[in-house]
Write a structure and sequence with these properties.
homodimer, mainly alpha, Arc Repressor Mutant, subunit A, 5 helices, 2 strands, globular
Chain lengths: ~120, ~120
C-alpha cells in the first residue's frame, strides 16, 4: 500500500459503528438542501419566501417538504403568529439546532479547502 | 422569537459564504454512499467485492461510479497491481483522505446523538 500509509484507520467494529452513525446523520441532514436551510434559518431568514429567495434553486414544493422533515427532527420550529393579520408563519431555530454548529463548521471548512485544492484557489 | 434565542447566528455575508462552502462539500461527499465508501476504505476494505459486501445495499454499478467520483476528487486512489496474476485492483486511501477525518468524526458523533434523541436511546 505504499509508504504514504496513514496512521488513521478504523478497526472493524469501529468501521461498522461509523458506517451506521454517518448513515444516521446523512439520513437526517444529507442531501442537497437541508443544511442550507438550517444555515439560512440560523442567519435569520425565517419566512418561507425569504428562505426560497436565499436558497438559490430550491422549489417551493421541495422547500416545504424539507422544512417538514427538519421540523420532525427538531431542527427547526414552525411558529404560527395567529395574533397577526394576515397570519404570519415563521421557521425558527431551536435549542437543538445548535447541535449542528460543529457539523456546519467542519463541513464548511472542508468545502472551502477542497474548492481551493480543486480550483487552485 | 421567544426567550430561547441562541447566541449562534451568522451575519448575511457569513451566511452566503457558509451556503456556498457547505454546498461545495456536500457536492463532493454528500449523498448516500460517498462517506460510507471512505470509511470502508480507511478501515482496510480495498477490493471492489469487499467494499460491496461491507457497504450494505450498494449496487456494483453505483459503487463503481462513486469510486470514480472519489478518485477524481483525490479522496481515494485506484491502484492496479499488474504484476500479480490475475491482476489485482485496489482502492486505497490517500494523503488527502485524511482531511475528511474531522468531517467523519463530527458527522458520526452527531448521528449517534441524534439517534439517541429520536429513539430515546
Amino acid at each position: 500500500m505504499g509508504n504514504k500509509e496513514q496512521k488513521w484507520a478504523y478497526s472493524e467494529p469501529e468501521c461498522i459503528k461509523r458506517l451506521l452513525s454517518v448513515e444516521d446523520a446523512m439520513y437526517v441532514i444529507g442531501g442537497k438542501w437541508k443544511l442550507k436551510i438550517v444555515i439560512a434559518v440560523v442567519t435569520g431568514h425565517n419566512r418561507f419566501n425569504e428562505l426560497q429567495r436565499t436558497i438559490k434553486g430550491i422549489s417551493a414544493r421541495v422547500l416545504s417538504n424539507e422544512l417538514k422533515d427538519l421540523e420532525e427532527n427538531g431542527l427547526i420550529q414552525r411558529v404560527v403568529h395567529s395574533d397577526r393579520m394576515p397570519v404570519v408563519v415563521e421557521y425558527i431555530k431551536t435549542e437543538y439546532t445548535k447541535t449542528l454548529k460543529d457539523v456546519l463548521d467542519t463541513l464548511g471548512d472542508w468545502g472551502i479547502k477542497h474548492k481551493k485544492k480543486i480550483t487552485g484557489k
